[in-house]
Amino acid sequence: MTETLRTPTAAVRPAAGTSAAGPTRVVPARRRRPGAARRIPLHVFLIAICAIWVVPLVGLIVYSLRTIADSAVSGWWHAFTAPLFTITNYTSAWTTGGIGQALGNSILIAVPTTVITITVCAIGAYTLARMKFRGRIVVLTIAVALLVVPPQLTLVPLLRVFNVLHLTGHIPGVWVYQVGFVVPFGIYLLFGFFRAFPDELIEAASLDGASVPRIFFSIVLPTATPILIALAIIQFMWSWNDLLIPLLFLGGGASVAPTTVQIAGLVQSTGGGLNLLTAAAIVSMIIPVIVTVVLQRYFVRGILGGAVKG
């Protein structure tokens, strides 16, 4: 009886790839990921790099909130053990230091400069990329060649020209200079995007009776929003942080001086008064930080859009 029961069990063997409980799945071998212990040095390195960037900013903020007496007897890191903060430095920087008026002058310089640059570059790049006319390649070549001209070489000649035209000492003179030196880069950046724009969309709009300005403003520009914002960020940050051009073309007067010129003047007048200087620097950083944070998501997309080959 025992042999009779064992015989069928021994005779039935699982087929290849199966088991007594049923067919088995072949699981591919997984690649072994590096363990957490191997990633510890990388994490430590990244944290150290972040600390190198963040610590000076923290010190700047703490200095702007400390009193002059505390800053004279101890370093900024002692503020965490005996915190005593005040906003007097900010009120002094806004009124006595003139940073409030300088902030308005920076806005009057950077915003129109950015708007004019975007307008000129968009129209110029679209014209060179999509319209056929004699000398188009020559104009494009000259625009690209102007990228290698150092702005410092043009300071003295343009300053003499601006003196003749009575543009020195006035904010529009800074507009002209800063726009002129970013337009070649802007045309070069936008040219690749407009060159790769689908011809079918433009032809369909033309067949529907749309004019060239209507096609440009209603079809092309909305699709170019990321790259236009990327160019706007570049121009705005350069115009806001520029010190040399406003100092030379505006003369450093308090009525037209932007934040960079005003802070440079505070360095000379205060003789190392860190509390007032750091408060003025923090105020001057607020608007660029807001612009960068709000428009950051468009920046990478815009730069990659300009890299498209037509």
Automatic annotation (TrEMBL):
The chain crosses the membrane at residues 40-65, 107-129, 136-155, 175-194, 215-238, 244-267, 274-295. Residues 103-295 form the ABC transmembrane type-1 domain. Its main location: membrane. It holds the Pfam family BPD_transp_1. InterPro entries: MetI-like, MetI-like_sf. Keywords: Cell membrane, Membrane, Transmembrane, Transmembrane helix, Transport. This is Carbohydrate ABC transporter permease. It comes from Frondihabitans cladoniiphilus.
